[in-house]
Structure to design on (142 residues):
């Protein structure tokens, strides 16, 4: 269920520019910024401006597919710009209950992981683990 911006959601505050967070990208649909606890050489989050709690709130609808595609395009563009020599990128979402903030956010990682053990946070664990963005797009393709 999509909802209006929530004053109790830290990512809604970032999306509405109510915090001092430096935005790496901003448009009418998404904003992007650095993760405050980076797990890789570069670790960015791309979030929708509209409050969408988790990947479970997205459906096989053209608008949901277009939003996730746009999030992925923004993430790729940022990593190509800021980590051009990184040969390994990962893009994906944590699924509930392993998501840390209930506002949809795409993790964009330019590897290597730092520290190396952080790769564990980004392992697919079936329906509750990390899901790669491309795989998730297949799941919600209209």
């Amino acid at each position: 269920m999509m909802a209006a911006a929530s004053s109790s959601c830290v990512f809604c505050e970032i999306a509405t520019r109510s915090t001092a967070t430096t935005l790496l990208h901003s448009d009418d649909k998404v904003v992007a910024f650095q993760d405050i606890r980076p797990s890789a050489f570069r670790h960015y989050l791309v979030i929708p401006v509209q409050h969408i709690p988790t990947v479970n709130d997205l459906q096989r609808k053209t608008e949901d597919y277009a939003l996730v595609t746009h999030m992925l395009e923004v993430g790729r563009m940022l990593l190509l710009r800021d980590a051009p020599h990184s040969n390994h990128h990962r893009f994906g979402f944590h699924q509930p209950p392993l998501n840390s903030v209930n506002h949809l956010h795409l993790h964009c990682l330019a590897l290597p992981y730092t520290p190396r053990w952080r790769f564990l946070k980004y392992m697919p664990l079936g329906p509750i683990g990390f899901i790669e963005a491309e795989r998730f797009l297949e799941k919600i393709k209209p």
